[in-house]
Design a protein that fits this description.
Pfam families: BPD_transp_2. The chain has 16 helices and four strands. It is an all-alpha fold. The chain is globular, with a radius of gyration of 22 Å. About 40% of the residues are buried.
């Protein structure tokens, strides 16, 4: 029985095993070739550097499991940051402003994306792309394209402080991970998210409230964006009017790298953690090696494409079935014009 536990634990990693092994190899490679990579200070900087991505990716995990994607996550971060700065500027106590900011992010995610996708049945891609564009404009209008400076000490502690010698963002990362694991494994909501992602119709027939589940999923993503805004504002002492939409794509890439299926119904937050760490280790190691930032963006983009390709290969059952399916689709497409022509000539 005891000997079987390690085997079971290893078997449970089958979805994110590739990124886990590559992460270990990458960590070893940079540890051997790049001086200072394994220093405690650098490892701390590595973790704090991915804290925003970590929180966003955890929220994004539930969205992808439900067979969706939230392209507006970065815009919600920026909007929540401006909301926080405005709330503090209006005289709200820092603690109250922090709670309201997180709730504001959740409200935007649930009230805009969740309702439009869940209640009206609109495409998640169209809705989140549209909300990303609209929210980016609202951020510019609300902030008047000016940086909103924040001097609250509590915010600086969230972004740059430490508790018991451990950076506060790392504590936030741990707390959000524990909550995400609890939702995934210990709640009916977690079960419902998997069911909705597997088949929305079957989930509805099974009595699951698919609309409510969808609204809650995008609300969770918004809540995570609100938490990420706290870290971002606390780190630089200001709310930026600029929206870093690339981080939303990085979050999606981390989730896909961690084994969550783009088609929904499979994956989990455990794999997402390794996906985030993979991106963080890669970027950190490349920075120490002196690789320029735009090349890092190229590498991240390639990783996103490979992650999607890997997901498609896994869903198809291998490379050959994927190629066969692609050929079948091409053949079906090629046959359509000839069919139409034949019908016209026979008429």
């Amino acid at each position: 029985m005891t000997a079987a536990l390690p085997r079971r634990a290893w078997a449970a990693t089958h979805r994110f095993r590739p990124v886990l092994l590559i992460l270990a190899a990458l960590f070893l490679l940079f540890g051997v070739t790049q001086e200072g990579f394994l220093d405690a200070t650098n490892l701390r900087n590595l973790l704090t550097g991915v804290s925003i991505l970590w929180v966003l990716a955890l929220g994004m995990t539930f969205v992808l499991i439900s067979a969706g994607v939230d392209l507006s996550a970065a815009a919600i971060v920026a909007l929540a940051g401006v909301f926080l700065a405005r709330a503090l500027g209006a005289g709200a106590p820092p603690g109250v402003a922090i709670v309201l900011t997180v709730l504001f992010g959740g409200l935007v995610g649930a009230g805009v994306n969740g309702l439009l996708i869940g209640r009206l049945g609109l495409s998640f891609f169209v809705v989140t792309l549209g909300s990303m564009t609209a929210l980016t404009g609202i951020v510019s209008l609300w902030s008047q394209t000016e940086t909103q400076f924040v001097t609250a000490r509590l915010l600086r502690e969230i972004g740059m402080g430490s508790i018991l010698g451990i950076a506060t963002p790392i504590w936030i990362m741990a707390a959000t991970l524990l909550v995400a694991l609890w939702i995934q494994h210990r709640t009916y909501l977690g079960r419902d998210i998997y069911a909705v992602g597997g088949s929305r119709v079957a989930a509805r027939l099974a009595g699951i409230r698919t609309v409510r589940t969808t609204v809650v999923v995008y609300g969770i993503s918004g809540l995570c964006a609100g938490i990420a805004a706290l870290i971002a504002v606390g780190r630089i002492g200001a709310a930026s009017p600029q929206v870093d939409n690339a981080i939303a794509l990085q979050a999606a890439a981390a989730v896909l790298l961690g084994g969550t299926s783009l088609m929904g119904g499979a994956g989990g937050v455990g794999g997402t953690v390794f996906g985030v760490l993979f991106i963080g280790v890669l970027q950190n190691g490349l920075s120490i090696a002196g690789v320029q930032s735009f090349w890092q963006q190229v590498v991240t983009g390639v990783i996103l494409v490979l992650a999607v390709l890997g997901d498609r290969i896994s869903a198809a059952g291998g490379v050959r079935p994927l190629i066969a399916a692609a050929r079948a689709r091409l053949a079906a497409t090629a046959d359509r014009p000839s069919d139409t022509a034949n019908e016209g000539s026979s008429a």
